[in-house]
Amino acid sequence: MLLLRIGWLDLAIGVREANAIQMRLLHTSDLHGNVSHYARLVAAAEQLRPNVVVLGGDLLPDDSATDPQSFGHGQAAFVRAPFRKFVTDLKQRSGAAEVFVIFGNHDWGSSTIAMGELADEGLVRILTHTDAANIDGINFIGYSFTPPTPWYVKDYERLDRPGDVPPFIGGARWSHQFSRPVQHGAKMIFDGHPTIKEDMAALKVPAQPWVFVAHAPPFSSKLDQSFSHQSYGSRSIREAIETYQPLLSLHGNIHESPRVSGEWCENIGTTLCVNAGQTTKAVSFAVIEIDEATRRITQREHGQQA
Ligand SMILES: [Zn+2]
After folding, report:
1. What would the mean pLDDT of 185-204 be, rounded to a whole number?
2. For residue 8, what pLDDT band results from cuts at 50, 70 and 90?
3. Residue 270 C-alpha to ligand 1 middle, in angstroms?
4. 267 FRET partner, CA 20 to 30 A, in 164, 219, 242, 244?
């Protein structure tokens, strides 16, 4: 075993052998355009040498708060410059074969276009719920949408279930026609789009072993607890995990949940569900190893890089 000191935390991780059949997966979420966190993640990945890195949404800065002129454009600029450099460094220095990406409720539709350019170059792979990505015999499915939040950006929000009442306050969606965000009331934002439950019914369930990457955590779990001990996860995501039972389910969104619940992972049926959480002082992540022959999870560690 190799003992790694990552920031303040020791990680006991077995050394990967040259002919190993373990997939080592590094998952983090909610970096919110924090360039120090991105640098910390590269440093951690360089030591951990994952095969695959999974970035679970809310990756970009809240440009609406910093510069009204760039409203909705700043994130796309971030993807095309600092994020692009980050992914290039990450792959070079960690040796990761693939960087999987989903979006989150703070990400504008404009960044989806910019991330698509990086995907076209082969720098990242954007995960969707309708088409599995396969690497070394393990399938990955992604889902970016969360139930309604109080925040302004609405490109990656959906009602959780049919019949749910839209929130009182609306927000804005990115307009591809006008190349800027357009403000709408809640009814306009949520009507005419499928609910998360409907999207989960349309999910193309891949062959096992498969990994589900969803920004929203499962409702009423140890992974969706706010500071006030309320559950902010998705009922439909939970139902999908219970029904489809992926080997592993990776989440983010509620940064404080591991500190509030005291747990960063939880089993739902046979699925290991993870939310590594996020802080501002150190980047939080999870390291999971999957044995490709037995299709079992052989290692699970939580880490922080200060
Ligand atoms: Zn977030």
Report:
1. 93
2. very low
3. 27
4. 164
Instruction: Report the pLDDT value the prediction gives residue 71, as an integer from 0 to 100.
Output: 80
Regarding predicted confidence, which is higher, 18 or 62?
62
Instruction: State the distance from the centre of ligand 1 to the C-alpha of 280, rounded, in angstroms.
Output: 11
253 CA distance to ligand 1 middle (Å): 5
pTM of the model: 0.92
Question: Rounded to an integer, what distance in angstroms lies between the CA atom of residue 296 and that of residue 106?
Answer: 33
Looking at the chain, list the stretches that DSSP marks H as alpha helix, in order from N- to C-terminal side.
35-48, 63-66, 74-78, 84-94, 109-120, 186-190, 196-201, 235-244, 257-261
Question: Ligand 1 center to residue 293 CA distance, Å?
Answer: 35
Domains and CATH numbers, the chain: 2-9+24-305 (3.60.21.10)
Encode pLDDT of 63-108 as tens digits. Answer: 755 566 678 888 999 999 999 999 999 999 999 999 999 999 999 9
* pLDDT recorded at residue 45: 97
Q: Rounded to whole angstroms, what are the CA distances from 122 to 113, 116, 212?
A: 15, 10, 21
What pairing do the DSSP bridges indicate for beta strands 52-56 and 22-28?
parallel
SS3 19: coil
**CB within 8 Å of 159: residues ≥ 6 apart:** 147, 148, 166, 190, 193, 195, 196
Ligand 1 mean position to 57 CA, how many Å?
7
Given a cut of 70, is residue 288 above it in pLDDT?
A: yes
CB-based neighbours (< 5 A) of ligand 1, an ion: 30, 58
Cα gap 56→62, rounded to integer Å: 16
Ordered DSSP codes for 211-238? EEEESSPBSSSTTSB-TTS-B-SBHHHH
Residue 57 has pLDDT above 70, yes or no: yes
